[in-house]
Structure formats: C-alpha cells, structure tokens
Amino acid sequence: MSEFLTHAIEKVSYTHDAMIDLLIANPEISQGEISDYFGYTPSWVSRVIRSDAFRERLAARKGEIVDPQILESVELQFEVLVKRSLEILQDKLRIENAPSADLALKTAELGARALGYGAKTGVTINAQQFVVAMPPKAKDSHEWLESRVVNG
To answer: DSSP 3-state assignment of 132?
Structure first.
C-alpha cells in the first residue's frame, strides 16, 4: 500500500490554515507553487489538499469570506438559469423531429449527474493500515489450545 494513502491528515494545523489563506488569496495557484512557497514536496501538498479535514476547513473559510447576500443572489440566479435550461431542453426533446443523439446523451448525462448517479469525482480513499501480532502457527488444535491456557 502506498504511503500516500496510508497517511491522511486527520486535523488541520497552522501550516494548513496558511495554505488555505494562500489558496483563497490566489485561487489559480498550482500545487507546485504551494509546495515551493512552503518548502514541502508536491506529494505532501497534494495529500493535504485532498484530505477531508483540509477540504472542510477550506469550505468553512470560504463561507466566512463570502458575503451571504452575494452568495444568495448568485445561487438564485443559478437556480433560475438551471430551470430555464431544463425548459429549453424539454422543448427540444419534444420537437417532432427526433433530437440528435448528442443532445439526448448530454441531457441524460446532466440529468443523471444532477440526481447523483454516475461516477463520482474527487473521491477520497481513506485507507488504514493495521499491524496485528499473530501467534506462531500451531501444529494442531490441541497445541493451539495449550498455548492459550493460562497456568494458574
């Protein structure tokens, strides 16, 4: 198992908070530039950025910075845009001439994604590694039982 998967961060440190501030101030910054800035390896930065703890803190920080009225306005505009787009797609799919296969497939893809079906993006794998001390192999069940009996 790779080191990358077995060492996920569990909580955010002050360095991670500084990375979050840098990301918010410079949304187009690359992971390579972040690693240069902080003096860590690109793989370390990647592991941190992809961790659940980091993503949760980043979302919370963005929520603190964004004006709730602006966010509500943008969300409302996006909701209106989506509803109107759905109306247009439904009209196009109802036309007597059959819609193109590309239009039908793209509509199905967007609808499935909106409903949560299909491949998920940004899936985080939290792999755990455990070390278990195993007793030596016994020749038979009697030997195993004898090794377990505590002499009183």
So the answer is: coil
